[in-house]
Automatic annotation (TrEMBL):
One Pfam family per UniProt: Thioesterase
All residue ranges annotated as the Thioesterase domain in the record: 17-230
Organism this protein belongs to: Oryzias melastigma
Enzyme class: hydrolase
Name under which the protein is recorded: S-acyl fatty acid synthase thioesterase, medium chain
Keywords: Fatty acid biosynthesis, Fatty acid metabolism, Hydrolase, Lipid biosynthesis, Lipid metabolism
GO molecular function terms listed in the Swiss-Prot or TrEMBL record: fatty acyl-[ACP] hydrolase activity
Keyword check for Transferase: no
């Protein structure tokens, strides 16, 4: 489990667990450190192959590989207390795919899903959007600069780019080939929060509503696609999730 899930702060008395899924090309540390801040929540961050301590492992080629590995790591620990999922961008889609598998095959679901900065998997706009993974490195770097979130000095460093681009493009290939039909009836009963930056590309978050019969909320933050990386927004986001998870324990009992 430790090779797949990064937990920097164990909290045996936590009211709930939060499992975080990184954005494309991202590692686990950004989210795992939330465990030092969220006093009532034990935080796990998914660590994908091809980066961090798994840098020698080959990248996954499709969504099923991610789902198989993460579900196998999560199932042994999810019957101990309530859990929620958080994913940003690529991570929103991977967390949804994991949740769908757990619900259909194991009858397990989170008490809350926090899905950030992403189209619903069945969105026509997503399915028709440009395949960024097929861009030349030059065009790809221009796109990265436009969406923000990566310090310009890093993108100007050829060695950093050489190490960073393969993971990012590998993740984008996974998500760009991922297909999911719009559900005819809700897949989940849990609460769902869709989050985004006010200046990000509009993701038509309302389309996510059909996946659950539970409470549905949209929360917008100042900023663009990587709104959650600014300290002020990060604090607002963590406070928001902590409040929801502290009350979710009552529904779990």
């Amino acid at each position: 489990m430790d090779s797949v899930l990064n937990c920097l702060k164990r909290r045996p008395d936590a009211v709930a667990r939060l499992v975080c899924f990184p954005w494309a090309g991202g590692g686990s540390v950004h989210f795992a450190r939330w465990g030092h801040v969220m006093d009532s929540v034990e935080v796990f961050a998914v660590k994908l192959p091809g980066r961090e301590s798994r840098f020698r492992e080959p990248f996954f080629q499709n969504m099923d590989q991610i789902v198989d590995e993460v579900v196998a790591a999560l199932l042994p620990i999810l019957d101990e207390k309530p859990f929620a999922l958080f994913g940003h961008s690529f991570g929103a889609l991977t967390s949804f795919a994991v949740a769908e598998r757990m619900r259909k095959l194991h009858n397990v679901e989170p008490v809350h899903m926090f899905l950030s900065g992403a189209f619903a998997p069945f969105s026509e706009l997503r399915l028709k959007s440009q395949r960024r993974s097929e861009l030349s490195d030059e065009d790809f770097l221009q796109w990265l600069t436009a969406i923000g979130g990566t310090p310009p000095e890093l993108l100007a460093n050829p060695e950093v780019v050489r190490l960073f681009l393969p993971a990012l493009k590998a993740d984008l290939r996974v998500v760009e080939s991922y297909r999911c039909a719009r559900p005819e009836s809700p897949l989940f009963r849990c609460s769902l929060s869709c989050l985004d930056g006010k200046d990000d590309l509009p993701h038509n978050l309302q389309e996510w509503k059909c996946i659950t019969s539970g409470e549905f909320t949209i929360r917008m933050f100042d900023g663009a696609h990587f709104y959650l990386k600014t300290p002020g927004n990060e604090k607002l986001l963590l406070d928001y999730m902590s409040r929801h998870l502290e009350t979710s324990q009552l529904d779990y009992l």
